[in-house]
Amino acid sequence: MSNEVFYLLFLFGFYTFTVVTYFAFGYAITWLNDRNPERKIQKGRGSDKRRKAEIRQSLASMFSACLPLTIGLYAQQKGWTPTPWGFSWWWAVPLFVLCMILYDAWFYFMHRLLHTRWLYPLHALHHRSVAPTIWSTYSEDVFDNFLLQSFSAVVVFVVPFPAAILIAHRLFEHFNGMIGHCGFEYFATSKARYPSPLLCTTFHDQHHSGFRYNYANYFSFWDRVLGTLAPNYDQRVKAFEDEAPGIAISPSVALMDAPEKAD
Ligand SMILES: [Zn+2]
Ligand SMILES: [Zn+2]
């Protein structure tokens, strides 16, 4: 089998896996959300009416999420990049964390560029979801998503990450992105607010509702340093931490009775 055929098969295989897990994880989180209405972040704001359009757009955009990774791996295989480090379990965690830190910086600055007058037309589609749901994760223009994900095609020219780290990172980002858009908060702890650089679902949810804040992906570092953190982010996390009841796995009568309000 030629290299080209192998990487084409990889691309379609990875895309298929992404689509299948998008639906499986999407329905699993929806099931959990239905049982935990108190954990909804934007209370009273219905967001399910865009679901069909979001899923349709996501099927296209998920492809552009898989393409840059395939390009990066192909470039490594062709020898166009520095020779990748060999994989070792000892280095797996530090390299994965390094990959997260670099991706977070890439995401922050690329995302800020997408909010400029010149590039915003590409990004506007993603912001139609003011109260995001799990189905909004990939509801974005294919070029918008390609720019954000092109990290995998570029970083290989700078840091010789082993292929396994790049693949594991894309998978992690897939699920992380879905949790970040699910509209319900399950991760509000002291680790998700100052002085910790970690964050929870409220962070990106506030980017959709407030638009000018919280551009980063994994860490609040860049937003804090460059003054783009939502002013009430830490308080919102603390409030969830203090007030949200335990996570329920039995159906909520309250939710079944409550009619959803439109946007
Ligand atoms: Zn944005
Ligand atoms: Zn988003």
What's the quick description here?
The protein is mainly alpha-helical and 263 residues long.
Structural notes for this entry:
By secondary structure, the chain is mostly helical. It has a domain at 3-186. The chain is 57% helix and 0% strand. α3 (89-114) crosses α7 (163-180). It is globular. One zinc ion (ZN) binds next to α8. The site of one zinc ion (ZN) has 5 residues, from loops.
What separation lies between the terminal Cα atoms?
Answer: 52 Å
Following the backbone from N to C, one meets helices and strands in this order, namely: HHHHHHHHHHH
| Tally of contiguous helical segments | 11
Strand content: under 5%
Rg over alpha carbons: 19 Å
Give the names of the bound compounds. zinc ion
Unreliable spans: 255-263
Largest sheet: none
Q: Average pLDDT, to the nearest integer?
A: 92
Helical content band: 55-70%
Which structural class do you get from the secondary structure elements? mainly alpha
